[in-house]
Design goal:
569 residues, six-stranded antiparallel beta sheet, 6 helices, 28 strands, 14% helix
Length: 569
Amino acid sequence: MVIALLMGTVLLAGTTGLMVRQIMARKLGASESYQQMAESAALNGLNRIISDINRDDRNNYTGFLLSLNNSEGQWGWAKPNTDNYELVELCTPVTKYTKAYPAQTESQAPNVLISEGDMRNDGGSNDIQVAYRLRSYNTTATAGNGEGTFYIEGIVSRGDTVMARALLRRSLYVSSKVAGAGDWSVMSGHNLRLNDTEINGPGNIFYLTNTPSNYLSTQYASSCSDSALLADVSSTNDELAGKSLDNQVWPININTTRRGVSGMPPSNLFEKDRVNDTTRGSGGNTIRMWSFDDSAPAPDDRDGDGQNDVEEDGITEIQYPALPCGEAVCVRDADETETGDYGITDSGDFRTLEEEGINIDPDGSVITLKTNILCNQSNQFDCHVYLDHVNLTNKKLLIETTDTRSVVLHLDQPVAYPNDPKFSRAITLSGSAKLCSVNPGRTTCNGNPEQLVIMASGGSAPEDACNTTVRSLSFKDGNLPYALLYLPTGTIRPNNATLSGLAWASSICVVDENNNPSSFTLNTSQSGIPIVQRANDNWGWLSRFNYPGYGRMVTRAIRGTSLDTFERW
């Protein structure tokens, strides 16, 4: 009897232990299943957020959020383009939100339900539901490129009870690029007086501003209105402002203390395989400086006595030539700057073309700088030529270029300028003068703006640029038919002019000789191809260093090779 009772007790204890073990195994299995559901919810939420932000819809664009931190104490997604959360493209509409961070959210994001109804029937009185939540986002891509790290919570709950929770951390590459030729900036500057400017073809106008506070989201309706943007660039052409137009004025934040960018593209865009034009007698070691001026000799007060200088007879005024060498074209070594007495008895450090060993008639109506003259010691792709002074009224200055040779004309000084105010450090074209690139052996412009670049990138930009000639380019009518203009420290002054090319400069002043409003037509396509595409093909911007472009950007989150990391609590 006792043995029977003991055996019953042992059997009862064993059965009870087995039942408890099965119950615990079921609870652990359910818990692990809930946890797996939470991790799946977090991953699903991340995919939904990325899909939402990367949506290919300009009218519902939210990619700008990728440049803003959104975590405890810095909820940038709640107030984009406000103080401390300024955007680079200041007039970007910020009224579009993501499902993960909907409108009116001021701090932490709400839970976003993934499922409708019961996700699992395990006998509970309430439905099992699955949701995700954007816990935080941190980024180094404040200017549009860098890394962004998402923290996404996956949540499994029954009613008010949280059954499981998982935290997913995932880092992605944030990339900003110009989507197409129509999004590029074809005209750009800090100081823009565009007056009657017209753009034929694709492309926008970048207005570079140091005062992003004028364009914060609270002032969008006024500061980003069509009339306000036209006023910013002093333009009278309604076709340059309008959210649905091909050519738009687009303010860009260049205040680097307020999350801005540098403003202009880098100068190495025009350095593919660089070589400098050098003097013939230096063996390629001394940069050659060029001056062109077809002005007639004229009297001048060189001795500073307040009267024009005269000959020894005391009556006849001395007729000084426009350039020290006494001809329409002079050259000098970059490190030698003496002007002498302008060829009366001494030409200083300036030489004629004949003295330089160049066979060109400086008195002819056409001056052609052939490929065997410029950078003649090299077959490298881009030949960089430095200018002291260009002032032409009647002559044509033609520069030979080919598919394997482009020319960059610099208004920068590599060493020193002559201490003579007559050297304008500028290009001035008027009358019937013309400056363009030509094919070898031809005398008509070749229509390849990408092969001729005019550059001024040294020194500081003048404050009163429309009244300053230093590092300026002045032209009218058809004086300069084809060229890429890159003058981040200079000024472009078109006067009733037409240009096929690009115009990037510190200042663009569409005025006449008396600073009265004038007109300017910029053609941004050539032979049916956008000039930015022709420039990219010629200079290899994309192939050389994967240049993202200079224009209205589209920012995307791109998956890399980093692994998802889950945390439990």
